[in-house]
Design a protein that fits this description.
Blueprint lengths: L28 E5 L5 E5 L2 E5 L15 H9 L9 E3 L10 H10 L4 E5 H10 L11 E4 L8 E5 L2 E7 L15 E7 L3 E5 L8 H4 L2 H5 L5 E3 L3 H4 L1 H11 L3 E4 L21 E2 L6 E4 L6
Parallel strand pairs: 3-4, 4-5, 5-6, 10-11, 11-12, 12-13
Antiparallel strand pairs: 1-2, 1-14, 2-3, 7-8, 8-9, 9-10
Helix pairs in contact: 2-3
Bound molecules: zinc ion (ZN) (2 copies).
The site of one zinc ion has 4 residues, from loops.
Length: 284
């Protein structure tokens, strides 16, 4: 599984870097980076986490640091009081069934929303004693082309749609990759895309879904920035106020000037624990 630097060149990169995140926006929410595509979004007392626990780096992605993982399991700040955990898809760099089973036991308040494929893997390793845990698990069963589904609980509005995994249609078409658009307290909307493929056809099929509400912050896999079609999807279909790229290989230089030219103008999450304020109004 290699998503490394592709030799795509574009002059439009700079035009897409809308918000710097430090301007005069009224910020009421924050995104916290875990590792790979792991992100926590906090607004007041409402907290959601995407793809937090996984065990496989495939030799090129970051794993959550040991202390961060321990804090998650112990429910220590800033990871206390998590309301929902989302899993984008069942790949080893996004989801570990055994770690999630432990996490469900360690923290008893959150709900888990995950593709049916991931829930099935969880059930496979669960014992009869774990049956009650599954009352907190919401499986998302979506085929490619299905209308988005809406789930609501505890101040969260969740809109889930299946977007094929990167590589479509040649490979990994069996992987249930889910893009979650989550609105917290009717105030802040974020979009986590998993390992979404960058073809426009996936988004062109349902423009109403994407236009339905403003996404304040999107977390596209960083290959959306490398691919002109991916940049176009962000700019014209998903239209978040700000995007922070995730799934960045560990080998990505810290110095933006050393990065591939087509992504130099984009914001990336690269350091576990770093944060971004989420802009909620489109000023300037
Ligand atoms: Zn994947
Ligand atoms: Zn991945």
């Amino acid at each position: 599984m290699r998503y490394f630097f592709s030799p795509l060149v574009s002059a439009f990169t700079i035009a897409l870097t809308a918000c710097s995140g430090e301007a005069s926006h009224t910020t009421t929410a924050t995104a916290h980076y875990l590792a790979n595509e792991g992100v926590m979004v906090v607004r007041g007392d409402t907290k959601v986490v995407f793809d937090p626990l996984f065990e496989n780096s495939y030799g090129q992605y970051q794993l959550p640091p040991v202390e961060m993982r321990a804090a998650l399991f112990a429910g220590l700040p800033p990871y206390d009081g998590v309301d929902a955990v989302f899993i984008s898809h069942y790949h080893g760099d996004h989801f570990s069934p055994s770690e999630m089973l432990q996490f469900l036991k360690a923290q008893t308040a959150f709900k888990l929303v995950a593709p049916a494929q991931a829930v099935e893997a969880l059930r496979k390793i669960a014992s009869a004693d774990d049956a009650k845990l599954f009352e907190r698990v919401v499986p998302v069963a979506l085929a490619y082309g299905d209308a988005p589904i809406v789930i609501e609980f505890g101040g969260l509005l969740i809109e889930a749609v299946r977007i094929p995994h990167s590589g479509w249609p040649a490979s990994r078409t069996d992987v249930q990759n889910i893009a979650f658009r989550v609105t917290l307290d009717n105030q802040v909307t974020v979009l986590h895309m998993g390992d979404a493929d960058t073809k426009d056809v996936h988004f062109d099929r349902d423009p109403e879904h994407w236009a339905k509400r403003q996404t304040h912050m999107a977390f596209p896999p960083y290959w959306y920035f490398l691919d002109p079609v991916g940049r176009d999807i962000l700019d014209h279909r998903l239209t978040p106020l700000h995007s922070v790229g995730v799934h960045v290989p560990e080998a990505m230089p810290d110095d933006p000037a050393q990065r591939p030219s087509e992504i130099q103008g984009f914001d990336l999450f690269t350091e576990p624990g770093e944060t971004r304020p989420i802009p909620t109004s489109d000023q300037e």
